[in-house]
Amino acid sequence: MNSFFPVYTTENECQDCYKCVRHCHCKAIQIVNARAAVIPDLCVCCGECFKVCPAHAKKIRSDLRRAKYFLQHGDVVYASVAPSFVGYFKGIRIEQLAEGLRRLGFAGASETALGAQLVSSESARILRESAPGVYLSSACPAAVDYIGKYLPRWKESILPVASPVQAHARFLRKTFGEKIKIVFFGPCAAKKNEADRRPEILNLALTFRDLEEWFQETGISVASLAGIPVVPQAAEEGRFYSLEGGMNDTMRTPDSDTQYVAVSGLANIARVLESADREKIARAGGKLFLEVLSCDGGCVNGPLMPTDGGGVETVMETALLGVRKTSVHRPVEVDLRLPVEVKAIQEPAKEEWLIKEAMESVGKFSARDELNCGGCGYNTCRQFAQAVIDGKAETNMCLSWLRKISQKTSNALIKFIPASVVLVDKNLQVIECNRHFAQMVGGDTLQVFETCGNLTGAYLNQMVEYTDLFDTVLKKGGEIERFNQVYGNRIYDISVFSITDGQTAGAVIQDVTQTELRREQVAEKAREVIRKNVLTVQNIARCLGEHMAETEILLNEVASTYTEHTPLEGLKIHLMDEESQQERKP
User: Fold this and answer.
1) Among 222, 202, 219, 213, which residue's Cα sits nearest to residue 62?
2) Are 82 and 53 spatial neighbours (Cβ–Cβ below 8 Å)?
3) Of 36, 201, 380, 401, which is the most buried if we count CB atoms within 10 A?
4) From CA 398, how far away is CA 386, in angstroms rounded?
5) Taking the CA of residue 544 as centre, how many other CA atoms within 13 Å lie in the half-sphere pointing to its CB?
6) Phi, psi of 523 (to 5 degrees)
7) CA-based angle 502:506:512, to the nearest 5?
């Protein structure tokens, strides 16, 4: 995120939709990790990416804090209000805005249209004194930057005249002194570039949105204000500048030898200038002045304007506020000279083998593979390949390639997964299935699948009995799992899941009949072994019991014998007999 540049991206909010790339005529967007970033060197601050970003990740730099700083530190600050205020602050008069700005602390409010009148007068003078040829307006800073960067051969045709806001700033400084601060309010992002490049002329460029926020913060209700005059005086024909062709209307005179044409939108500017032959027009002896504007329809359709800012009501109110007169011969009392100093973009030519390699990385091996669909944001596949080489784009931006890879991957998974797979829509019609599913259903289904390669469109309830699981998932979402479900003479493990809430669902079904039978057989064998073991143990126990009983009887008999006449007692009697016999001898 480069928040110092007038246009930048808040990366955390970017949703990798590439819409900004598609709408950026300059392709000043770099995609990094699927996030879009503005490339300052390539950007002309037209603000188109800001207008189209659906996630509002594109931002226009806010300089509101700096403007408040000027006022808080006692600077004398004047506001330059763009004529397109009519389309933003609907129903609000310029005098009411002037009073609101005065209450914010501004020394006064003035109309940028005053500077526009001076620009028209100076441009008309230069055209009168110029040779035949093609000349371009300098009023729109985004258009000037675009021509200078991307159409450099037309750079010399831009009139060396300051833009209306810079002309107005110079006029205000001449009127109120060089030490004043000047803050512009308008619908334009490119004006911030002007302020950044020439802060000694224009101090700050804010948006109407900033001004509206400022009023809300301070509790100022502009609609309820009576209003005060703008300074130093009200604008007249310069108020038409906010409309396409408004500048031309201020320069036309009956005796002019110049043809005036308005071209708005960068794509239209490129189309007109790339096909124009400047030398041929010059040789024909005519003068052509092109009023070039970056926003379609003019400033009333600027990036910071509401969607209805350039509607018929705005055009009509602008026409009523403006004074229909020419700016030609208006006195120009300030120096409006301002040469174009924008450097052309130098893009080195890409070697063909690099382009070929980049194309092949997204599956483009021949001209037939180049769809040029624009899904990536680039007009052709070759432009996209060049952006990949430059590091501005990533290969996964090619949606057709991603779709093919995704489809091949899903097809491979569905085809080779060792289970039945089926995907259905909300009407329970088959979207896709694999051969295992057709084989599981049986009957003629497998033959139909083999013939057609799919069962797309077939109704699921005519093939299986458990469609209630699909109905539940489609209604409530989530996932349902059922194990060892018996249907007919088969046993299934079924997992049904939601793919898109209420729209599509899928299922993985495994026929576990044989597995369950084998499991039952194993269980029965185990039970038989257990029974045999129990019998064996019982027999052993019985045998041990009998043996123990017999042993006990025997031992008891032996013990009783020894108890009645032990050998020790017999030995003692024998010894006593011998002693008695010896005593009896003489």
Assistant:
1) 213
2) no
3) 36
4) 13
5) 6
6) -65, -40
7) 145
Q: Is 506 left (phi over 0), alpha (psi -120 to 50) or beta?
A: beta
Give the containing element (helix H, strand E) for 21: helix 19-23
d(CA 363, CA 384): 13
Q: Closest Cα partner for 295 from 20, 14, 557, 45?
A: 45
Reduced to 3 states, what is the DSSP secondary structure of residue 142?
helix
Query: 203: closest CA among 339, 108, 341, 67?
Result: 67
In this structure, is the dihedral angle defined by the CA atoms of residues 86, 91, 96 and 102, taken in order, positive or negative?
Answer: negative
Spatial contact of 493 and 482, defined as CB atoms under 8 Å apart: yes
Q: Give 498-510 pLDDT, tens digit per residue.
A: 999 999 999 999 9
Tell me the C-alpha distance between 366 and 33, whole Å: 28
Of 149, 181, 144, nearest to 164 (Cα)? 144
134 SS3 class: strand
| pTM, to two decimals | 0.76
Report the distance separating Cα 34 and Cα 214, nearest Å.
35
Secondary structure letter of residue 459 according to DSSP: B
* Four-point Cα dihedral 224, 228, 234, 238, nearest 10: -30
Q: How far is CA 532 from the centre of its chain?
A: 71
| Residue showing tokens 């300052």 | 40
423 half-sphere exposure, CB direction, 13 A CA radius: 16
Q: Tell me the CA distances in angstroms from 58 to 50, 63, 205, one per residue in order.
A: 5, 16, 18
Segment 77-91 mean pLDDT: 97
Closest residue by Cα to residue 509 from 488, 490, 489, 523: 490
- Per the DSSP assignment, residues forming a β-bridge with 291 are 262
| C-alpha dist (Å) from residue 90 to 2, 86, 305, 362, 508 | 33, 6, 11, 50, 60
Cβ atoms of 437 and 421 closer than 8 Å? yes
pLDDT, tens only, 380-398: 999 999 999 999 999 989 9
